[in-house]
Amino acid sequence: KIEAIEKMMKRSGKNLDELVYSQKVLNPEEYLKLKAELMKVPHRIFDLKEEIPKDILNLVQEETAKNYQVIPFDLKDGQIYLGAVNPEDAKLESALKFISDRNNVNVKVFLISPEDFSRLVDQYRDFAEEVQEAIKSFRTTKPQEEKRYTPLESSHIVSSEDAPIIRLVAG
Predict the structure, then answer these.
(1) What are 109's strand-pairing partners?
(2) 43 and 36 in contact (C-beta within 8 Å)?
């Protein structure tokens, strides 16, 4: 079976990850477990309908999540649980430090599948759409009051002679 997979890799020009997830040459869940074991990192498999709470999702900005292929999925015991498609990526280390410093917590990284990442990162869009809908709803349900300015009567105007004096003392 290994030889057949190697031939497929050569023919298609794809690496093993791409073959596993696009061609299903191996069971993706078993492959993820094996890869995590070899990398000595924990792994996480998500249910198809699993949703990440918005407050957890907001721990990492969408742009950062997409750029480094990471997604926060839990926060407990002072740690952000972060799923990463490529936890061995050298560029990820600086992003992890930034995320940790920004949120004042430690980060625990889990290997996740590209399919899970793709599905979960769409939740940022869903959240943004909810916010946009809420803004539209607010604008249509509460007409803005017209601001009116009334001129001050001359009796309300204080002359500079009558205004209180503030002295600054250099010390």
Answers:
(1) 82
(2) yes
| Of residues 1 and 34, more confidently modeled | 34
Q: Which two tokens stand for residue 97?
A: 């430090």
Cα(42)–Cα(145) distance, integer angstroms: 55
What would the two tokens of residue 158 be? 């204080």
Closest to 101 in 3D by CA, of 67, 69, 53, 64: 64
Q: Is the distance from CB of 60 to CB of 92 less than 8 angstroms?
A: no
User: Chain-centre distance of CA 52, in angstroms?
Assistant: 10
Per residue in 133-148, pLDDT (tens digit) is 667 767 766 555 555 6
CB 71 within 8 Å of CB 112: yes
Task: Report how far residue 16's alpha carbon sits from residue 9's, in angstroms, rounded to the nearest whole number.
Answer: 7
Element (H, E) at 74: strand 70-76
Instruction: Find the DSSP H helices in 40-80.
Output: 54-57, 62-68
- Please tell me the pTM assigned to this model: 0.68
Task: List, for residues 79-128, the tens digit of each pLDDT value.
Answer: 999 999 999 998 999 999 999 999 999 999 999 999 999 999 999 886 55
